[in-house]
Design goal:
The protein has 77 residues and is mostly helical. The longest helix is centred in the C-terminal third of the chain and has 33 residues.
Length: 77
């Protein structure tokens, strides 16, 4: 069995990762569409989506680190 972050991650971590992927992906698609259509407001609207996706990704990393510390901590007697 592989010990990947997805397998060992909590449900909250998984939700954050999926949300980050969706937000970042939608932001990138909006930015590409805005660039192709030469619509500046669409490109500018995409930027907060990408930033929100990156912020959610960072939150997932924090949750993953917290979960790893909990697993590494010795059990209380």
């Amino acid at each position: 069995m592989l010990n990947t972050p997805w397998e060992t991650g909590s449900p909250l971590y998984r939700k954050l990762v999926i949300t980050a992927l969706v937000l970042t992906g939608v932001g990138i698609l909006l930015a590409i569409a805005g660039a192709m259509l030469q619509t500046d407001p669409l490109v500018y609207a995409a930027m907060p989506m990408i930033v929100a996706g990156l912020g959610t990704h960072l939150a997932g990393l924090v949750v993953r680190g917290r979960d790893a510390r909990r697993r590494a901590r010795p059990p209380r007697a």
